[in-house]
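Q: Structure tokens for this one, please.
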Amino acid sequence: MEIAKETKLADLLTEYPWLKEEMAKVNEKFKMLNTAVGKIMMGKATIAEMSKKSGMDADIIISRINELITNHTNQ
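A: Here is the predicted structure, written as tokens:
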């Protein structure tokens, strides 16, 4: 799956359901994905929106997610 700034978090988690638990490794603020509010946000949030909310550059988020996916598939 190609990950871009417009990629929706819901699409990522459909493709890689285990990623929900791992997102806190990308940024501590992403722990909220495991809350009720996080579930609501997952449906509409994009990488660009996650970048704004976390204060983290979108390209870095994409890079870290790609690292997690690579590490997970190589296990």
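A few notes: The longest helix spans residues 58-73. The two ends are 18 Å apart (CA to CA).
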